[in-house]
Amino acid sequence: MAKEMIAMLLAGGQGSRLYALTDKLAKPAVPFGGKYRIIDFPLSNCVNSGIDTVGILTQYQPLELNEYIGNGQPWDLDRLYGGVHVLPPYQKAHGSDWYKGTANAIYQNISFIERYDPKYVVILSGDQICKQDYSDFLEFHKEKNAEFSVAVMEVPWEEAPRFGLMVADENDKITEFQEKPKNPKSNLASMGIYIFNWDILKQYLEEDEADPNSENDFGNNIIPNLLRDNRQMYAYRFSGYWKDVGTISSLWEANMEVLDPEHSGIDLFDEDWKIYSRNTGMTGHKINAGAVVENAMITDGCRIKGTVKHSILFGGVKVEAGAVVEDAVVMGGTTIKAGAVVKHCIVAENVTIGENAVVGAMPTEEEKGVATIGSGVTIGDGVVVGPSAMVRENVEGGEVG
Amino acid sequence: MIKSSTDVIGIIFPNSYDDLVPELVSVRLMASIPFASRYRIIDFILSSMTHAGIDNISVVVNKNYHSLMDHLGAGREWDLVRKNGGLHIFPPFAEKQVGGPYVGRAGALANLLGFLKSQKEKYVVMSDTNVVVNFDFNAMLRAHMDSGADLTIAYNEQELPKELLDYQTNDRIFYYTFDIEQGRIRKVSINPKTAGVQNTSMNIFVIERELLIELVSNAYMEGRSFFMRDVIMPQLGKLNIQAYKYTGYVARISGMKSYFEENMKLLDDYNLDALFSAAPIYTKIRGDNPTHYKDGAKVQNVMMADGCVIEGEVENSVIFRGVKVGKGARIKNCILMQDTVVEAGASVEYLITDKNVTISAGKEMKGTDTFPVYIEKYKTV
């Protein structure tokens, strides 16, 4: 039985610009928004859009991501036919290869896709926070009789040179593609989300694989080749919330935006477009007498005795009496001991911040850094961690960064 | 883990003691009463059984069980979707021979005699759902085997709740206490009015399956329905019936007042840890987002689940999933169940709201500590 459209989710990126957060973790598995991981967004979008077959291409540090995905049940993707499949590189009869690029990752899984005989394939990226209805996107693709469509966002012109840009005519037909140009001709940034007719995608993947000079990348090779051949290519304008969380500062910012849905546009409370995640199974959280909680997201298992302002706390975080947490993202299982001050920073999972330690600082004119503590790290009593420090190892005393 | 635990089936009676909390069971049964901000009472005994490796569990429902079926589903959250065994729900007409709504535990068991006969496990553990415990069934099974008992019943030492002592009528059997000699139960008292600490039955039983079938078949033939009074008490001198003392945390729901108090007791971290630290308690996943405390929120001494949006003041309260508290609203000493909405400026104290209750803007409502006001499901004040 053929599926109309299946999704292939690129989740192999190392996420090197997230530094300490991705030392032991693939980028799509990075926690976000209090009880989610980045990959919950594309997976939930798939289910909410009626896509029940998703291949996840993994390569870098896949262990925790694989365990998190499991059989896909939290996203309702445990299906008899289809469902979610984690697709690492594998050994074949004639040699084996790591995924050389985004296009090669899909190329190596052509046989997976063909099992479902789809008419369309949507290529998704595992490093974005976005709520998007892929079925609307597919409607557009069909209406335009397109062979390839790309979701684009209008970005401010001054920021356009940072993106891959689609130049399109008044019918949204793409005429040119500019990768991070100095002089942008368009402000339509590619979101890295594509719909292909499967026959076209397969043809171009095979051609690309045969080219020894190719980087096997969608942006650098496949899209330019489609343009060269004058294929039916269209730009689908998306106007909802979209954020690439590939850097520490953008990840921190996106978390803070969750606290302000009215202005930022990311609403996790939307009953019509729920984001699903794997549950931790902890008790309800506790706010003790004497605690101060202002404008914060707090979830199961947290115990709050200190002060929490404008912050996101993940499951099981403990904030002891006299500790202050402000403008911070504190991931699951972390303990912030009495008198510690944690500000304008990201603290990863299972960290211990010692008594009266100081991590990060509110931004000033000169210093706007987001201090980052890697997972499992212990910061000793009284240690001072500077506002742009990146801490990957235990710190017993003194100052860092 | 001891190997024998996989040689055990579990049976849960979710309707026992429904009549102690008539308000809360008007739309459900004892087992599915919300408790401790994100659980239903049955979650505790069910999770305890699965932690002991018991993966063949029957829930013998009698009436009003829609909310329980909805909660349990196929049993996935408790890891009870199993090829062999798993979760069974037995409604009153599940088997042809007996059939119909039953009276008492023995009546319930008569309803599933056919099932019991077809199973292979050696032991049966049975429990009601009015006692909230993070119970170690392996420890009790080990004690049962070591003592060579025919039947073991768990009890805890506690004063009987005032609600039970105050209960005037004796037309129903509500609770039992034991006289124990060297671990063996010598006497069972029904509804005693004795003050002070008692050996109070938790109605958690361990028995061999074959013996259970024999006892229940005889009781059924003679038209007897109450397991403790009609089946066990006549056997006190004949069978070796052992008492198993449970020393862990016990929250016993004996009425609206104890329901209120047992929830409130969990605001003390000592009690919370005592109940939850032994093993995780599983419950149905709703997929709520984290709770958002917005500007203007003032929260003190509160246990709260996910999915809430808090813009007002909340003090000394237990708040379930998806509750909304509007700007300037004040909540003190309350239990607000799932999706309760307290609109802006409303003020409530000593209130228990059932699911989906709305307290309209500016309204004031007050109960007292001995008599909290209860508002039923879907009502708007």
Description:
The radius of gyration of chain A is 22 Å and the shape is globular. Chain A is of the alpha/beta class and 401 residues long. In chain A, 19% of the residues lie in helices and 29% in strands. Chain B has 381 residues and is of the alpha/beta class. Helices cover 22% and strands 29% of the residues of chain B. Chain B contains 10 helices and 26 strands. In chain B, strands 15, 17, 19, 20, 22, 23, 25 and 26 form an 8-stranded parallel beta sheet that branches. In chain B, strands 5-4-1-6-11-8-12 form a 7-stranded mixed beta sheet. In chain B, helix 3 packs across helix 7. The model of chain B has no long low-confidence stretch (mean pLDDT 91). Classes of the chains: A alpha/beta (401), B alpha/beta (381). Chains A and B meet through strand 16, strand 18 and strand 21 of A and helix 10, strand 14 and strand 15 of B.
